[in-house]
Amino acid sequence: MKNKVTLIVVVMLLGIQLTYAQQKYLPTWESIDKRPIPQWFDDAKFGIFIHWGPYSVPAWSPKGTYSEWYQYWMQSRSLFGNGNFKGDEVYQHHRKTYGDHFNYYQFGDMFMADQFDADEWAALFEEAGAKYIVLTSKHHDGFTLWPNQQANDRGYKWNSMEVGPKRDLVGELSTAVNKTSVKMGLYYSLYEWYHPWWQNDKKRFVDEHFIPQFKDLVQTYEPELIWGDGDWDLKPEDWKTPEVIAWLFNESKVKDKVVINDRWGDGVRFHHGGYYTTEYGAHEEYDKPWEECRGMGFSFGYNQNEDASDYNSTRALILLLIDVVSRGGNLLLDIGPDARGNIPPIMQQRLKDMGAWLKVNGEAIYGTKKWDKNVQWSVGDQKFEKTTHYLGGDYILKQTVNPEPGKAVKELFFTSKGNDLYAISPKYPKGKLIIKGVKPSKNTKVTLLGYEGELSYIKEGKKMIVDVPFLTFDELPCQHAWTFKISNVNRLK
């Protein structure tokens, strides 16, 4: 009888897999949106973004702006970000530093990547506790980090195999990352600022450049995640992205495993595609998978103008991760290597610190879901006012450990797995931890992740009061935030 039941289960599972494999998606958003997002993405919670290309050579823009937009800032003599700008700052810097006759494309030869070691990068990403990475295979300047025929259709060589490094950077990093537990993803910009077809014949650009180039990238490297961008100047029907995504889900080599985001044409973001993407956000929550992306400083590409004070502290980055995950999202944290392929030491250290914290507390992050409420507030004003376009990571410090007068703080963040609740405290509690609105069962136990033994507690009305051990700095299981696991909790009614 047992063997018969087992056989039935196997047949049912095979049937489900066959149905999934035979599913054909039409080139319509109604059909595309029905495709489930592979579970690994929702469980991953932490990824690393990498902006790297010819813009990493000048690596310059005013603080509070994106240095990877160097070409556009320079040629348009405009600027946007945090601060008051005349607009020509990058243009004037370029003239002073490189001269009037030095054009952006000459940076391609200077982008050498001669110290790039893919295995070292991959090992760092794994040590950081990241579950996926997203490399900019091509940004808006059109330079591809892989050998590609369409990259040269502008009339000159513009890819990393024929210019600068003379190496297949996408291929090297994909090979290295695929040897680890980390999943490989690729960012791809649909448009290119100054491609002659983009400027003069957008239909030709889409048909003869974007679509074949995109398919070449997918079929050659088989990424598990594709991060589209640069889509906002055309409607999806003009980009033909519904057709492209239908091909991706029906025919490509990654059709059964690939994850995509939501940047596939004007009006698509936050409505269609795969998971939703926020950028320097703060309070978002959605009913489907989503991801917050931001740099360690303000720029995504390496910016020589940013110094230690511009980089988020380890504490801020860990609290950012916790805050995003408590709201059901993933954090995609960006690093910007330099033109030689070195990841700046301050970025390396931040990643290593996050990895050390996740080794102790990863149970409360990976594979978790939102709880009935995502946070426990103190008494005070919870309103948060955004005063800059790009919201710095210090906002989370103001909401937790360094509040302004009269403002409430987030005392605890909550995540969950099944009936187990994780309460993550930005401050180590002094003797007692008060958890509001939690209903323990007769089998509930409380533990501190990384610390041996159970913690005693009492139930008082709608509160749990937990006895917290007094620990010295050296005895603490981790730094920056501490996780209390409350097992077998009853859901609130």
Overall average residue pLDDT: 94
| Major β-sheet strand ordering | 5-4-3-2-1-8-7-6
Q: Tell me the overall shape.
A: globular
CATH level 3 topology of the largest domain = TIM Barrel
CA gyration radius, whole angstroms = 24 Å
How many beta strands in the DSSP annotation?
A: 19
> Structural class from helices and strands?
alpha/beta
Write out key terms for the chains shown:
single chain; 19 strands; Glyco_hydro_b; alpha/beta; Immunoglobulin-like; 493 residues; globular; Glyco_hydro_29_N; TIM Barrel; Glyco_hydro_29; 6-stranded antiparallel β-sheet; 8-stranded parallel β-sheet
Please characterize this protein's 3D structure.
By secondary structure, this protein is α/β, with parallel strands linked by helices. The protein has 2 domains: 22-364, TIM Barrel, CATH 3.20.20.80; 375-490, Golgi alpha-mannosidase II (Immunoglobulin-like), CATH 2.60.40.1180. The protein is 29% helix and 18% strand. The chain is built from 15 helices and 19 strands. The chain has an 8-stranded parallel sheet with strand order 5-4-3-2-1-8-7-6. A 6-stranded antiparallel sheet has the order 9-10-11-18-14-15, covered by helices on one side. Helix 7 (118-127) packs across helix 14. Residues 4-20 have low confidence and may be disordered.
Structural topology:
Layout: H1 2-22, H2 29-32, H3 39-44, E1 46-50, H4 70-76, H5 89-98, H6 107-110, H7 118-127, E2 132-138, H8 169-177, E3 183-189, H9 196-200, H10 202-221, E4 225-229, H11 236-239, H12 241-250, E5 259-260, E6 276-279, E7 290-295, H13 314-326, E8 330-335, H14 345-361, E9 375-377, H15 394-398, E10 410-417, E11 420-425, E12 432-436, E13 439-440, E14 446-448, E15 454-455, E16 457-460, E17 463-467, E18 482-486, E19 489-490
Parallel strand pairs: 1-2, 1-8, 2-3, 3-4, 4-5, 6-7, 7-8
Antiparallel strand pairs: 9-10, 10-11, 11-18, 12-17, 13-19, 14-15, 14-18, 16-17
